[in-house]
Amino acid sequence: MNAPAPPLALLAELTHRCPLQCPYCSNPLELVRASEELATEDWLRVLNEAAELGCMQAHFSGGEPTARRDLETLVAGASQAGLYLNLITSGVLLDAARIDALAKAGLEHIQLSFQDTDVASADHIGGYAGGHAKKLDIAKQIRAAGIPLTANFVVHRRNIDRVPAMLELGVALGASRIEIANVQYYGWALANRAALMPTREQLDEATKIVEQKRETLKGVAIIDFVVTDYYARRPKSCMGGWGRQFINITPTGKVLPCHAAESIAGLSFDNVRNRSLGDIWRNSTSFNRFRGTEWMKEPCRSCDRAELDWGGCRCQAFAVTGDAAEADPACSLSAAHDNLLASAVTDSQSEQTAFIYRRIGGAIHALRDDVPAARSNIQDPADARLRGE
Ligand code: SF4
Ligand code: FES
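Above: inputs. Below: predicted complex with FE2/S2 (inorganic) cluster.
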């Protein structure tokens, strides 16, 4: 196999700590504690190794990356290494002074997530009292600091009908990009699939609105629309192909081709604590396992889209068929496609409306929001554990 081209981007998952607890969280089921996270010096070394490898961008993510008090130091180090820097955040731990410090350190873009446009619904989904109001304020501070903003809305059955309001809000906040992302059913989102899956009609309506607005908002904001795999006929090119464009580093330093790769049984992943990033990118068994097209079976092997979508998502193929080398079941040519579609239709008509929440800082608590303890899913913003204090 030829040496792979350099990665385009590094996704640095700095921490799993997060003050929100969205029911569609894509973090693994087992969350990493603050004491297990990579140290500042490790991250600085890794960011330099990424730049040396030819990587262009670093995206700081989590969990909530602003829970790391060394974020400014990491941004400054990555900026000096020459990387383009983006912060993916819920915003609730930010304030004007910190935004200013991050801008001074070299931060070039912020992607701010919103749970909804309806205040009560947004705070309920994120499980954080006052979260939506705080985000609105933080969006203004970000723009005041001159940092380009992407407004990210994760949509599902409970809020997808408010896509028009989401687009309006994104424009009003001065976002140059608005991302309407349907939930992807990995990690914790799978536990809530029946409560989250939109109906086909809802998805079709949202698609129509996005297409219309793409025209009317030309020159104002770019709209990204990530559709629900389950209703697709052809899969997305997940991560732009396994080991082709992206490196994902977990809070403990494991290097993955995508954020969900550890869900695939039988693969093991190297750690930046004991191997250089360049060596892992070029030579690790797990990165090479699904690179290119050699590993493909039929129908992908002889498909003319093999080098367009790279067989879709390996993690979804494994989750649904038990074999990560199968075609992504989102593809209508996959033997598992009809079952996947049927499960989407069934889920979208489910009477389950309650979310199952989990909490950070110990065992996972399945906490239903349709019981009298409902408000206990709202976390106290002052909870120091969430900040790693
Ligand atoms: Fe993509 Fe494989 Fe489906 Fe072809 S058969 S469209 S390569 S997933
Ligand atoms: Fe892992 Fe798609 S999420 S390959």
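The longest strand covers residues 149-155.
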